[in-house]
Amino acid sequence: MYMIESKGGAIACMLLALLFLGTWPAIMTLTERRGRLPQHTYLDYTLTNLLAAVIIALTLGEMGPSRPNFITQLSQDNWQSVMFAMAGGIVLSLGNLATQYAWAYVGLSVTEVITASITVVIGTTLNYFLDDRINRAEVLFPGVACFLIAVCFGSAVHKSNAADNKSKLQDFKSLETTSSFEVETISANNGLTKGKAKEGTAAFLIELEKQRAIKVFGKSTIIGLAITFFAGICFSLFSPAFNLATNDQWHTLKHGVPKLNVYTAFFYFSISAFVVALILNIRFLYWPILGLPRSSFKAYLNDWNGRGWSFLAGFLCGFGNGLQFMGGQAAGYAAADAVQALPLVSTFWGILLFGEYRRSSRKTYTLLISMLLMFIVAVAVLMASSGHRK
């Protein structure tokens, strides 16, 4: 198998993972805003996410002189470590599924900031102790504190932006209490359907509501924040579970049984994530949540609108997770949590593709800039804490 042995190689893996993991949420949000049901999108996504893990395992997991390789480990008595890897895949799948709905309620940027910050505060602390403190604590924990501050800024940005949107819609006060069915009638009566609305305007927000799959007008933002915090807790546990799978800190393996390599662990990790996503999303097809329309497996198979984008999102997430784990195995999983700076990438896509924060107040822009600067500082500090696993 191929192994990353230098700190420079580990950091390169983290940076590439950062790009991939910050881009795939934007793609998923794009399909939802174009009206594709999230159940359909996630089923496509989970297929290519698993395929990415298989590709990594059969290539990087088989090349090079290091042993044991991927195929060899499939038949070894390492079920204890396999269980840790699969537990990590389960919580990651639950977190990803939750964020798919949170994006609609609180926006791509704020969702990614809050979940990433919770992940770092809890997950990085756990990984630091699991990795036998190979990362420099005097550098690592100030970085964790910066991520925690970013959570506060992220919540403030969401609150301020929600107030901005409410102000824009003040002439359409009934939108906050009416059903999504009435939105179309109101917007048509006010001539908002003629031409393409400018991003950030009331007309734009109403057109978006009409087109998107998840209707959010009249829904409490508390729902979105609750889903976001649940996702953050799930994300904070998957990396420590993967760490336990590859390094056996609790000595659960029998004497003489090799530890799982990154590629074998990632394969089992992705298998469990796939199974959970498959079961839940097929259920959501027939018994949808949050007011989504009912669908069917046949309707999913016939829905090719946005399927290519969904497949791309799965590949990006799969390869991004694999690169994160490769970097973490070399430089410490606590330092590898620097990839949680993905909101820097997601916010860029949110502004560029979806017009988030367009025509917002000066207060919102000030909070947004403060949030992003705090993230930049946190990532720089966290990467500076990188160690070297013996």
Automatic annotation (TrEMBL):
Cell location: Membrane
Keyword annotations from UniProtKB, A to Z: ATP-binding, Membrane, Nucleotide-binding, Transmembrane, Transmembrane helix, Transport
Transmembrane segments: 41-61, 82-103, 139-158, 222-245, 265-287, 308-327, 333-353, 365-384
Lipid metabolism as UniProt keyword: no
GO cellular component: membrane
A GO MF term: uracil:monoatomic cation symporter activity
Membrane topology: Multi-pass membrane protein
Source organism superkingdom: Eukaryota
Family annotation (InterPro entries): UPS_plant (IPR030189), Ureide_permease (IPR009834)
PANTHER family to which the protein is assigned, alphabetical: UREIDE PERMEASE 1-RELATED, UREIDE PERMEASE 1-RELATED-RELATED
UniProt similarity note: Belongs to the plant ureide permease (TC 2.A.7.19) family.
Protein name as annotated: Ureide permease
